[in-house]
Design goal:
Shape of chain B: elongated
Radius of gyration of chain B: 17 Å
Helix content of chain A: 55-70%
Distance between the termini of chain B: 47 Å
Distance between the termini of chain A: 39 Å
Radius of gyration of chain A: 12 Å
Strand content of chain A: under 5%
Number of helices of chain B: 8
Largest sheet of chain B: none
Largest interface: A-B, 19 and 28 residues
Order of helices and strands of chain A: HH
Number of strands of chain B: 0
Number of strands of chain A: 0
Oligomer: heterodimer
Structural class of chain B: mainly alpha
Structural class of chain A: mainly alpha
Strand content of chain B: under 5%
């Protein structure tokens, strides 16, 4: 697993896609 | 001052959604400061989550892990199991980005336990998926196949074809 490979771990990519839209409101 | 805190939080979220992660961090740090002044633990917890998320997109994974650890500590103080699970999941993924797979497994297992306790099958499925990948990265193929099978079983149950 190289560092480039890490960015493409499917479960991490899925998490980051969700995270990008996650803003916890006041 | 209380309104300033809420405004900084909302400003941080808006910068984040616009992709202005540096500005998002600055706003959430202000929000954090005001939450501390008021002893508002929930707002402090939210600020740390938001700071962790922005740090991930800045590529500052070690900083993100520190923010998520603070989130986890406060979630435990607030006795909020769902937020605790979310913090563990974030830490598992962040340690994967840091290529520290032992730590990633430690947090994904914590997430798995809470998801089971809350009978959150979707969360459980994600934990198994993540654990399968982390064990693969470590070359532990027996554990990897165990979690891949669990992931498949749960995906079938919840009707997730992807």
């Amino acid at each position: 697993f190289s560092s480039m490979h890490v960015m493409h771990v499917d479960s991490v990519q899925h998490w980051m896609k969700d995270l990008r839209l996650m803003a916890e409101c006041e | 001052r209380a309104a300033q805190g809420r405004a900084y939080g909302n400003l941080g979220n808006t910068h984040y959604l616009l992709g202005n992660f540096r500005k998002a961090v600055r706003s959430h740090q202000e929000r954090l400061q005001i939450a501390r002044e008021f002893g508002d633990k929930s707002a402090e917890r939210r600020a740390y989550s938001n700071l962790g998320n922005a740090s991930v997109f800045l590529g500052e994974f070690a900083v993100a892990a520190d923010h998520y650890k603070r989130t986890l500590y406060l979630a435990r103080q607030l006795r909020d199991r769902a937020v605790e699970a979310q913090a563990c999941y974030s830490l598992g993924n962040t340690y994967t980005l840091l290529q520290d797979y032992e730590k990633a497994i430690e947090y994904h297992l914590k997430h798995l336990l809470i998801a089971q306790e809350l009978t959150d099958r979707i969360g459980e499925g994600r934990a198994c998926w993540s654990l399968g990948n982390a064990y693969t990265a470590l070359g532990n193929h027996e554990q990897a196949v165990h979690f891949a099978e669990k992931h498949l079983e749960i995906s079938k149950e919840v009707g997730d074809r992807s």
